[in-house]
Amino acid sequence: MTTLGLRSPVSRSGAVSPQPPRPPAFDTEVLRAYMKKLLPSTLSHAVWSSIERDQVKAWMKEIGERVKERMLQIQPNGFKYIVLVQITENMGQGGRSHMVSHWEDGDICLNELFYNDSLFCTCTAIAVRAS
Description:
Elements: H1 28-43, H2 53-74, E1 79-89, E2 108-115, E3 119-129
Antiparallel strand pairs: 1-3, 2-3
């Protein structure tokens, strides 16, 4: 029997496959500090009974846009951003929320709460690594 000079491929089990460089981690503390200042500065004098529906929409849009812009300043590449804002009349009610997720290393979720005697606002910021 004759051989054709073929041989098995060399094992590369010890070789490390190259990984694309990962963007730096998202700086959550910078964003948290920003959100802690933004909510009271935007809503500190807000009174639910004297505001119109359009004013509430405007506040939610302003807060959401400003948080998203800050996230882009902190880390402009490598993440997808989601910002959720809810403003509700404060009638002394209780409330709970829960979020279930499947995260990769580096994905983040921050939640900040502001309230006064008239209303409360929750702002949730999510940064998910882009593939």
